[in-house]
TrEMBL record:
Domain Peptidase U32 collagenase: 381-496
Organism in which the protein naturally occurs: Flavobacterium restrictum
Protein name: U32 family peptidase
PANTHER family associated with the record: 23S RRNA 5-HYDROXYCYTIDINE C2501 SYNTHASE, PEPTIDASE U32 FAMILY
Pfam family, one: DUF3656
Organism superkingdom: Bacteria
Length: 624
């Protein structure tokens, strides 16, 4: 059996979800009324139901995100909501809290959210054996590690392909809750990682001022799709449940075309598309045309270059060219002829901060801004608001998805019959009782029939092959032809939805040993059911979730693969030959009242962020 390879798109709401499907998504993920890790991207059960029906028409799937940690008083509400989601036909739930594995549930498929920190082959195999059908891999993994995980268990693997990166291991960031009780694990991340900080060394000297030292570039591994498929990934996930419709359509269409090219050129015959229909676009998609902070492939191909986006956490956009000069009250920019009235431009000013202007008008190759700012010749200019592109993409018909059909019109004893067969083999038949009359002059009007049968208009179908088999040149009013066509396609939609096969899986309680017997706060155990789940699988010591036991001022608030020493070319392992003088530790990040100490764990190649009153030993680098 061929492996289905899927593009999975974010849906803020019903409109964004439908736009993602129209742009070529094989599946979408969306928040329910509660318990999603984006508290301002919730949706009613009714809207999710409408999205399910629309997606299933194209054999696309809908996954609902229930990836916050749950408190005891929420468990029953959550369970009841899961039944409602099952009843409306949702294909799977993406979950973090193991309490859900302990509930009495309908036979709905479960996926382990990336918040469950899925980066270890043993733990992923454990989740598979416990009943998870899919695991959303941690973004920090490289190709070799993904392959190892794939070989260790035959669970479906999902991996992010484009979008923003969490600087922390997902599910293990407590900065937000430690600074104001807004918990990222409860859907309310305050994005402390996108703030500007000063970097101070162990002597109290400021090394870097007012820089976004924890802000990293956005992810793009779209050119790694063949390697990732080979490593075992079956689903490519786009981040962005809070992003606008232009971002969704641009990212999905870009990846659709990338994946289609891969599938067309695949000579192994092992892989196929995961849903039906063909997309057409009125725009040329490019990742740099919608929100981005510049791109990195992170660690997919190991650690090689800097990944920070220190100047600004805002969107950089598309590189246009260098500023040639300021001419009167306008700018002369390389490739400035490609700019449009209303475009937003971005540049890094002399204080090393992101700055921007709007273009009021473009005339004779000059860009006239809304505010004339002093910009040095040679400064790189980016466009982060492309008005012409946005205008095209926002149109409803900029991305259209159609299912291919063949139509056959034949005569019957009592009249005529139209059979519509789609690309998946579903067939709809319409009979018309009608007297047989020959055309005037006995001339064939089959071509006229074909022209009208081909008018599929706003239906989700195209009629790619139309055959008319008559023994005589029969006459039929065009109104009857149109009516038969309309009915055939309406019936076909009903048949497609009736024939849609949702995968179901009934959880069975397991008791195989968990790979650890002691769990610290980073396992996010916040209720009695999750505790029971782990205890049944042999865990003997379980610390409460951070949110329930936080020790103000002294806690570890983040663990990350991102390393400020590496960014500064001061890594004693990877940059030994060019690092020069060692940094005096502990390094401190300071932002107003906020202050954090950095701890570098070189063996696992990780950095930890601790609150200012924490005490720890500084590790020596001599183990290599």
């Amino acid at each position: 059996m061929k492996k289905k390879i899927e593009i999975l798109a974010p849906a803020k709401d019903l409109i964004h979800g439908m736009a993602a499907i129209n742009s070529g998504a094989d599946a979408v993920y969306i928040g329910a009324p509660q318990f999603g890790a984006r508290s301002n991207a919730t949706n009613s059960i009714e809207d999710v139901a409408k999205l399910v029906e629309y997606a299933h028409l194209f054999n696309a799937q809908v996954f609902v995100v229930i990836n916050t940690i749950l408190y005891d008083n929420e468990l029953e509400t959550c369970r009841q909501m899961i039944y409602q989601l099952y009843d409306i036909g949702v294909d799977a739930l993406i979950v973090q809290d193991m309490a859900i594995m302990e509930m009495e549930l309908p036979p709905i498929v479960l996926h382990a959210s990336t918040q469950a920190n899925n980066r270890n082959a043993d733990k992923i195999k454990f989740l598979k054996d416990a009943g998870m059908k899919r695991v959303v891999l941690a973004r920090e993994l490289n190709l070799h590690q993904i392959k190892q995980i794939s070989e260790a268990s035959d669970v479906e693997l999902e991996f992010f392909v484009t979008g923003a990166l969490c600087v922390s291991f997902s599910g293990n960031c407590y900065m937000s809750v430690a600074n104001g009780e807004r918990s990222a694990n409860r859907g309310s991340c305050a994005q402390n990682c996108r703030l500007p900080y000063n970097l101070i060394d162990g002597n109290g000297e400021t090394l870097i001022k007012n820089s976004h030292l924890l802000s990293i570039k956005d992810f793009d591994v779209s050119d790694q799709i063949p390697n990732l498929v080979e490593a075992g990934v079956v689903s490519f996930k786009i981040e962005g449940r809070l992003k606008d419709i232009v971002y969704v359509k641009n990212n999905v269409s870009y990846l659709r075309q990338k994946l289609d090219a891969f599938l067309e050129n695949d000579t192994s015959g092992k892989y196929e598309k995961a849903s039906s229909g063909k997309c057409t676009f009125t725009f040329d998609s490019a990742l740099n045309k919608s929100f981005n902070r510049g791109y990195t492939d992170y660690f997919v191909n190991e650690r090689h270059q800097a990944i920070g986006s220190w100047e600004s956490p805002k969107s950089k956009g598309q590189y246009i060219g260098k500023l040639i000069k300021t001419s009167g009250n306008a700018y002369e920019i390389e490739n400035g002829e490609f700019l449009n009235n209303g475009d937003g431009l971005c540049f890094i000013n002399e204080n090393n901060e992101a700055d921007g202007i709007y273009v009021n008008k473009v005339e004779n190759g000059l860009a006239y801004p809304n505010v004339l700012k002093e910009i040095k010749p040679g400064t790189f200019i980016y466009r982060n608001n492309d008005t012409a592109f946005i205008k095209i993409v926002e149109r409803e018909d900029s991305a259209v998805r159609k299912i291919s059909t063949t139509l056959l019109l034949i005569e019957t004893k009592t009249g005529f019959e139209l059979i519509a067969t789609d690309e998946d083999g579903n067939a709809s038949t319409v009979n018309l009782v009608h007297p047989k009359e020959q055309t005037k002059n006995n001339e064939s009007i089959a071509e006229n029939f074909k022209i009208n049968l081909a008018k599929t208009g706003f239906t989700p179908y195209t009629a790619d092959e139309i055959t008319i088999m008559f023994t005589e040149n029969w006459f039929l009013p065009i109104s009857k032809i149109n009516e038969m066509r309309r009915t055939a396609f309406e019936q076909l939609s009903e048949i497609r939805l009736d024939n849609y096969k949702r995968h179901e899986h009934q959880l069975v309680k397991t008791s195989h040993p968990y790979p650890e017997t002691k769990l610290d706060f980073m396992y996010n155990v916040s209720n009695k059911m999750a505790r029971k789940f782990y205890e049944r699988h042999g865990v003997t010591e379980i610390e409460k979730a951070f949110e329930l036991q936080w020790d103000p001022g002294k806690s570890r608030v983040m663990t990350t693969k991102y390393c400020i020493k590496y960014e500064l070319e001061k890594c004693p392992i990877h940059q030994k030959d060019k690092m020069g003088e060692k940094l005096k530790e502990p390094l401190v990040l300071k932002q107003g009242e906020l202050e954090y100490k950095l701890k570098f764990k070189c063996k696992p190649c990780e950095m930890e962020i601790w609150e200012k009153d924490a005490e720890f030993e500084i590790e020596e680098d001599h183990f290599h």
